[in-house]
Write a structure and sequence with these properties.
The complex is a heterodimer of chains A (115) and B (114). By secondary structure, chain A is mainly β. Chain A contains no helices and twelve strands. Chain B is mainly beta and 114 residues long. Chain B contains no helices and eleven strands. In chain B, the strands form two sheets. In chain B, strands 2, 4, 5, 6, 9, 10 and 11 form a seven-stranded mixed β-sheet that branches. Classes of the chains: A mainly beta (115), B mainly beta (114). The A-B interface holds A 4, 6, 32, 34, 36, 41-46, 49, 51, 90, 94, 96, 100-108 and B 4, 31, 33, 35, 40-45, 48, 50, 55-56, 91, 93, 95, 99-100, 102-108.
Chain lengths: 115, 114
Amino acid sequence: AQSVAQPEDQVNVAEGNPLTVKCTYSVSGNPYLFWYVQYPNRGLQFLLKYITGDNLVKGSYGFEAEFNKSQTSFHLKKPSALVSDSALYFCAVRDEGTGGFKTIFGAGTRLFVKA
Amino acid sequence: DTGVSQDPRHKITKRGQNVTFRCDPISEHNRLYWYRQTLGQGPEFLTYFQNEAQLEKSRLLSDRFSAERPKGSFSTLEIQRTEQGDSAMYLCASSFQAEQGELFFGEGSRLTVL
């Protein structure tokens, strides 16, 4: 069965500094990996995904993520954080090997960007 | 198209009552998903449909929970004999046919069981 771990409940960063939100996964087949963001009282919004190809994927709002197969990680990054990036971030995985279409989410990491 | 819509946005009910939530997915999306989210946690998968067929159900979905998508368009999630532990945000999402497709979420239906 697939699983996702987000080891940090909260990440604090100063505005203008780079940010990293960590994610590791476990699947039996090839992973499809996603990042979503949730603002207060709003639904989850898709940020970016890795399916195949280049290990560095770029997404919305200047975010990017790096797929590392050997470390089974898919960390979210941004070169320069904005206060408006403060939100709850979820890593998610779908296991291509199971043949199903169930997406499993991590517990989330709250990002706090201080001005 | 305005995205995935869910109704009602908030529901307060007494323990033992039945509640029903509705989800209208993006019109061209043939896959529809239900998740449950409690405070401080990530969304937990409940069930998903491809067109009108319910293809997978989580063990979290007890016999009191039932979901339908009768015509392959909107879906309903019914909870019978609600318990306080059912209090949560119920999220609906839809996606296009492709395996690699990301999910598009509605804003959720918040259930409070007193």
